[in-house]
Specification:
It contains five helices and two strands. α3 runs antiparallel to α4.
């Protein structure tokens, strides 16, 4: 956030925190985020990228989550389930409801 070149965090959890307030977001929650050319992002953040992200996750996640990550990876390699693009849209919906505009 914090305008051009602002801070978005280093992972999806940090990004979600940024959308929750503080970090340069307006105090009145009056924010609109326009995701231009989102169709390009949709292609680049589809199943191949989702599988790539899930392949590296077991080394970083809690051991009790590895089975779930493995199941998500299997689904992604079969082009099923949520993609990285879906994860991002869900974060926007959860943390900044109504703020995201896909263009």
């Amino acid at each position: 956030m914090n305008g051009p070149g602002g801070y978005f965090g280093r992972n999806l959890d940090a990004f979600a925190d940024c959308l929750s307030g503080g970090f340069g977001t307006p105090d009145d929650d009056d924010v609109v985020i326009e995701w231009r050319d989102h169709q390009v992002s949709l292609r680049h953040l589809g199943y191949p990228e989702t599988a790539r992200q899930l392949e590296i996750r077991p080394a970083r996640c809690h051991p009790t989550n590895r089975l779930s990550v493995s199941a998500d990876l299997a689904a992604a390699t079969e082009e099923r389930g949520a993609t990285v693009f879906d994860w991002l849209v869900e974060i926007f919906e959860d943390r900044a409801p109504g703020a995201l505009r896909l263009r």
